[in-house]
Amino acid sequence: MHEQMMNRELNADLLELLAENPDIQVFFDRMTELLGNPLTMVDTRFRIMYASRNVEIEIPLWKESITEHFVSESIISSMEKNEILAKIRKGVNHTFHSDLPGGYSALRTPLFYRGKFCGFLGLYDYIRPFTDTDASNLIAAARALTIFYNADSNILGAMDDTRDSYFLELIKCGTRDMAEILTRRNSSYQLGSDKTLICLTRRIEGMSAENVAFGRLREYLRQGIYTHVSAVYNHHLLLLFSMRNVSSATRRSICASIEECCKKYDLYAGQSFPFEDDSFIPLAYKQALKASLYAEPGDKTLPHICSYEDYFLYDVMNASLRVYPAALYEHPIVSRLSAYDKEFGTKYLDTLRTYLLNFCNMKSTAVDLGVHYNTIKYRFSMIEEIMGRDIRSDPELLMRLAMSLRIRDYAGEHRRLHEGTYRQKGV
Q1: Is residue 334 within 8 Å of residue 404, measured between CB atoms?
Q2: In the predicted structure, residue 90 carries a pLDDT above the cut 80
Q3: In what order do the strands lie in the sheet with 268-271?
Q4: What's the rounded Cα separation, in Å, for the pair 259 and 115?
Q5: What is the pTM of this model?
Q6: Which element (helix H / strand E) includes 207?
Q7: Beta bridge partners of 41
Q8: Residue 187 phi, psi (nearest 5)
């Protein structure tokens, strides 16, 4: 009877806490104080969703699990050995005691929602041994947590992979403002740092993303050494990699693996800018999707994975030229040199273009054009005489001329690029 009264009091205290501040991280930190041990909530793939933050534990096992957002394989093996997972799958709703590597132990209670097992709460005896009331207190905490099942998308998605579900929710936000709201609501839950997003798509109309090719690629990467989250959205397979402390060789290996699968299953991939903040994910998705459209179907000599970093300038031009013609953005010097070349058969505009591509190095310009250095000097003296301006000593003007030439060169192929029927190779 005394234990039941304590259980009811704890339930009331926890529900009152949730009413005051519906933040699951505050809840976990308070439970840590009450129970005297760190607390974690783990999904069905044993990735840590939430964990105590206000407890410093000098235990390698704990630190590794928290840092990598997963419970180590040795812990899972221990749970299998003690038949805990088998009991959980049968729907037995009570706490389980199990041994952990290194002589530690844990109490766990399954979390069920509408009859489905979706993870468990774990309490670890890194600070003090368990007491008789710990099991009932842990069950009380699990019951109080069910209030989040109607509000927290991470928990609702726990039947799959919570990190995958969170990733998909961020993509669906569409805008960074909406994503910032979601990340604030899940402030204790991060998808890593130094991230890059890769979008894979097919060019065949009517082909769904939920097909053999996408499924095999997801499993292939999961079984490898690459830690990532994934989601299927609008017939695209999206992969998010955290590249923190990843070597250059591993980065190349990831791209090579995706390239290999793209060729095997007739897929095309685009890679976003690298980024840190999770709220950037909706924009990263758009970047990766746009980059995937630059891969040219049918050309086996070109890679099937393209980086947005290589094509963002053309993407900006593409968006601009949908509204206004290229002539609107063309600098007067470019227009006048083009007209002069047409009238007198000179090559001043090509000389200027090559000069800019060679970072304003006249010797390199002469080599590329196959003429003598003095010829380039003469051409520039003529260009400046025609324009009435000292072009070479004005870096701002040179930047504007370079942009104007890029837009001019791009405009002629704008229609085909917009239709996505080829891969732009650079100017």
Answers
A1: yes
A2: no
A3: 228-233, 236-242, 195-201, 268-271, 305-307
A4: 42
A5: 0.55
A6: none
A7: 50, 121
A8: -60, -25
